Amino acid sequence: MGVGHYENFPVASLLAPARLRPAIRAIYRFARTADDIADEGSATPEERLRDLGQLRKVLDGSLPATPASGPIWPLR
Questions:
Q1: In degrees rounded to 5, what are phi and psi of residue 72?
Q2: pLDDT in tens, 19-72
Q3: Helix (H, G, I), strand (E, B), or coil: what is residue 52?
Q4: Region 1-28: what's the mean pLDDT?
């Protein structure tokens, strides 16, 4: 995707207790990735649906998050 975002969520998460920050980062990365797949770039609606389906498979464990060729979607 490679989209540069300015978001308040990661900055605001610094106000959370340190023990909660890894979980907050994980939730943010999921939400940011799903949002980018859904509405960033020049993908067709069919490509977006395919990629969202792949994200679902990664989350349910039936598709590896990092195949031999590298990450499916870059982490933010």
A1: -65, -45
A2: 988 888 888 888 888 998 998 888 899 999 998 998 888 888 877 766 655 556
A3: helix
A4: 76
Which residues, including other chains, have CB under 8 Å from residue 25's CB and lie 6 or more apart? 10, 13
How many Å apart are CA 30 and CA 52, to the nearest integer?
Answer: 11
Which amino acid, residue 15? L
pLDDT in the model for residue 58: 84
5 pLDDT exceeds 70? Answer: no
Among the residues of the chain, which ranges form H helices? 8-12, 21-39, 45-60
> Whose structure tokens read 């509405």?
39
Neighbouring C-beta atoms of residue 29, cutoff 10 Å: 14
Burial class (CB in 10 A: 0-12, 13-18, 19+), 52: middle
